[in-house]
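A protein record in our archive is deliberately plain, so that people and models can read it alike. The tokens are whole numbers drawn from a learned vocabulary of local backbone shapes. For reference, a complete record is included directly beneath this paragraph.
>
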Amino acid sequence: MKAILLAGLLALAGAAPAAPANDAPLVLTAMHLHDPWIVADKTTKTYHLFTRNEVAMTGDTRLGTMVYTSRDLKHWSKPKLAFVLPDTVWAKAGSWAPEVHQWKGKWYLFTTYHDSAALLGRNGARATYRRGTVLAVADRIDGPYTLVRGGEPIAPKELMTLDGSLYVDPRGKPWLVYAHEWWQTTVGTMEAIPLTDDLAAAGPPRVLFRANEASWVVGQKQPDGDTVYVTDGPELYRSKTGKLLMLWSSYGKKGYVEAQARSTSGGLEGPWEQLGTLVERDSGHGMLFHTFEGKLMMIVHRPFNYALGKLYEMRDDGDRLSVVREATELDGEAYPTHPCVPGHSSFDGAAPGC
């Protein structure tokens, strides 16, 4: 009787947290994920988190994309496969950086694959090979997704590209924004190509900016003595005042970094100015979404290897994005960093006030 009474008092006081539902037994600290992508589906009030298939999570060894679901961003379902790469296509590895977008009444999955045996040429000591973002389509957000155009990359196949992201301009025209891989270019670039309404390439690539244009980017020394500069994970965001911003990642003084850039023209063509870092300490490949309550959030993976998900509440300042706080109540403060003074836009532990 005492135990029952105590439990009742704790519940009334709000001290007894609700147990996770049986269909959502996972928390972010228990979820393998890299290059996370969240879609907040308003029709079902469900968050869908897409990432590459991890055998340890699904028990399935096939290449593909898996999806977790949640109602509250804290309790997550066990993942299921949303897409499986057919054995008959050119690609043999990858499943990187899945993005899911609704377009013309369908759901589209953009994800990057490669084949190290499909050689393209050389860049100094490095043999270049096929790598690119492919497209798949489904009627439902959780799949199953089917390859479009036989799985041929959207960008020209002679280019080593990755992390393709869909951007729709103010006229309603779709674009693919992607990273042109440092492996082929030495200095990685962000590029874009116009797309048709069925999301096929409709023109040549356009360089938006180069990795070494950002003062915070640190070149990575290679075994052959070459120094390379990385571009990763672009995502475009239109601010509340109409400014066009881009989240992207590279390497800084303390490892992998999440940063932002801004188009001075307001258009994809730029020119682009680098606004500095948002989150440091081996964190990156971030993306933005709004909660069902209207909060702007960002998810990154941290650390780069054996990655887990890390959530931040964000603020749209009109001309840039700022970090408000780490959402530790949602992610369990996995691999924590120490927040800076209120209002500081960087979570670099070396910054004043940290």
Observations:
- The longest strand covers residues 106-123.
